[in-house]
Amino acid sequence: KVPALRGKTVATMFFEPSTRTRMSFEKAAKALSADTVSFSPGTSALSKGESLKDTALTVRAMGIDLMVVRHKATGAAWRLAEWLDIPIVNGGDGAHQHPTQALLDCLTIRQHFGSLDGLRIAIVGDIKHSRVARSDIFAMISLGAEVVLVGPPTLLPIDPEAWPVTVAHGIDEILDDVDVVYLLRVQTERGGGSVFPSLAEYTRRFGMTSERFTRLKPEAVVMHPGPMNRGVEIGYDVADDDRALILQQVSNGVATRMAVLFRLLGGEHDA
């Protein structure tokens, strides 16, 4: 624990469920000696009709120095940044963006391979509803990787050919020629589950089963942002394999978010 942000207070305001993002931001803040305040919408005045703006202004008036926000509405973090005079960190907004996830994912890949430049990365699954995919695509391409989107047309973004990516409609097409397979769950809460007759059918066509895992290059790795649905998009054995970097992603989440918090709140220490 270092005293870099002693005297600062970070509020985590999560309007959607979270385990990894919320806890890692709180752990990151505490590791930097900041105080943390956790906001629970279900027990707040939102249930009495208070607006998001008034809720945020109220929390800010209590002396909060930075807010980490997750919300189902696209652009929620941007809107809060317009209303408030403190840094706002986007912990995920709808199906739009999840920037700190992209940072920790790229860090994890760089730690393993040394660089992203020239790597071929397949993002597989419900890309249409995934804020992680959008942030990852931008970050990975910026760092020199080639990105392949893999999924049925109904789970791909509109007009994917307009993106700086290639597209495949079956996971078996890409297994022997990728360095990273980045798996996404089907987001049933955003309508992703309605395009398949069953999750078993999804697994048959797009799941990283044990058999498919053996067909990857020996140096290839598997990643997942969580939460995982074992037995659906990722096999039970695959999730626990040494070439699955999933827990390394979680560990890197704390360090990455420490860096973000320090960058936004610790500048005065460099003056």
Walk me through the structure:
The structure is a single chain. The protein is α/β, with parallel strands linked by helices and 271 residues long. The chain is built from nine helices and nine strands. The protein has two domains: 9-94 and 250-266, Aspartate/ornithine carbamoyltransferase (Rossmann fold), CATH 3.40.50; 99-240, Aspartate/ornithine carbamoyltransferase (Rossmann fold, 3-Layer(aba) Sandwich), CATH 3.40.50.1370. The chain has helices at residues 20-31, 52-61, 76-83, 99-113, 131-142, 199-206, 210-213, 236-239, 246-265; strands at residues 9-14, 35-39, 66-71, 88-93, 120-124, 146-150, 166-168, 180-183, 221-223. Strand 5 (120-124), helix 5 (131-142) and strand 6 (146-150) form a beta-alpha-beta unit. The protein has a five-stranded parallel β-sheet, covered by helices on one side. A four-stranded parallel β-sheet has the order 2-1-3-4, with helices on both faces. The protein starts with 8 loop residues before the first strand and ends in a 6-residue tail after the last helix.
The CATH topology of the largest domain turns out to be: Rossmann fold
SSE pattern:
EHEHEHEHEHEEEHHEHH
The fourth-level CATH homologous superfamily of the largest domain is Aspartate/ornithine carbamoyltransferase
- Our count of domains comes out at 2
**Order of strands in the sheet with the most strands?**
7-6-5-8-9
Main sheet makeup: 5 strands, parallel
CATH class of the largest domain: Alpha Beta
Structural class: alpha/beta
Estimate the helix proportion, in percent: 25-40%
CATH architecture of the largest domain: 3-Layer(aba) Sandwich
- N- and C-termini, Cα separation: 22 Å
Strand portion, in percent?
15-25%
Q: Mean of the pLDDT scores?
A: 93
Question: Nearest-angstrom radius of gyration?
Answer: 19 Å
Overall morphology: globular
Q: Number of DSSP helices?
A: 9
- Count of extended strands: 9
Low-confidence stretches: none
